[in-house]
Amino acid sequence: ILNVEQSPQSLHVQEGDSTNFTCSFPSSNFYALHWYRWETAKSPEALFVMTLNGDEKKKGRISATLNTKEGYSYLYIKGSQPEDSATYLCAFMRGGLGSTLGRLYFGRGTQLTVWP
Amino acid sequence: DAGVTQSPTHLIKTRGQQVTLRCSPKSGHDTVSWYQQALGQGPQFIFQYYEEEERQRGNFPDRFSGHQFPNYSSELNVNALLLGDSALYLCASSPTGGGSQHFGDGTRLSIL
């Protein structure tokens, strides 16, 4: 069984606060780590695909870091806004001998609510 | 440029029935994956289709089957529906060689 864990499960912050969430995944047979943002009644939106240890990616006020050796990724949101309210999902893609790329193993997500 | 489209949006069935869900991939994508998201869980991989063949499969029973057509669109079929099949079914497409998977809005399936 391949476990991808996300914490916290939910988070409530005030507008303007900065916040971060964690995604833990297996440190062996790593190929890629995906982050998605999922607003209610919409489709999951791809934020980042991270492949290299030490990778840092940024998109506006959202950034992510990756540590493949210890099996974790952080997602940061600077100066949260109400429109950032969504569920943030991470998904692990396994590599290695015998693996077929394309299958994503998802965590349960972190549900972020930003109050005005 | 149309993204991934799924139909229907919602569906209500009773136990024992059969259902077919449909997905059209994003333009330029040839690989389609299906995921099931039960309440309180992350999406779980059902299977992936490429070149009209099932390329890999998750831990789902044979009641779950699929098909991919020459135009890359795909169907997910579930036979002998159980209450536990109630979930949101997501379709995702990606181009050959990988990259981000683009998701549709999903089909909400309720089993009574």
Features:
heterodimer; A: 116 residues; mainly beta; 5-stranded antiparallel beta sheet; B: 112 residues; 7-stranded mixed beta sheet; globular
Q: Which helices and strands appear, and what pairs or packs with what?
A:
The complex is a heterodimer of chains A (116) and B (112).
Chain A: E1 5-7, E2 10-14, E3 19-24, E4 30-38, E5 45-50, E6 56-59, E7 62-67, E8 72-77, E9 86-94, E10 104-106, E11 110-115
Parallel strand pairs in A: 2-11
Antiparallel strand pairs in A: 1-3, 3-8, 4-5, 4-9, 6-7, 7-8, 9-10, 9-11
Chain B: E1 5-7, E2 10-13, E3 19-24, E4 31-37, E5 44-50, E6 53-57, E7 64-68, E8 74-78, E9 87-94, E10 102-103, E11 107-111
Parallel strand pairs in B: 2-11
Antiparallel strand pairs in B: 1-3, 3-8, 4-5, 4-9, 5-6, 7-8, 9-10, 9-11
Characterization of this structure:
The complex is a heterodimer of chains A (116) and B (112). Chain A is mainly β. In chain A, 0% of the residues lie in helices and 54% in strands. Chain A has strands at residues 5-7, 10-14, 19-24, 30-38, 45-50, 56-59, 62-67, 72-77, 86-94, 104-106, 110-115. The model of chain A has no long low-confidence stretch (mean pLDDT 93). Chain B has 112 residues and is mainly β. Chain B contains no helices and eleven strands. In chain B, the strands form two sheets. In chain B, strands 2, 4, 5, 6, 9, 10 and 11 form a seven-stranded mixed beta sheet that branches. A four-stranded antiparallel beta sheet of chain B has the order 1-3-8-7, with no helix packed on it. Chain B is globular and about 40 Å long. The model of chain B has no long low-confidence stretch (mean pLDDT 94). At the A-B interface, strand 4 and strand 10 of A face strand 4, strand 5, strand 9 and strand 10 of B.
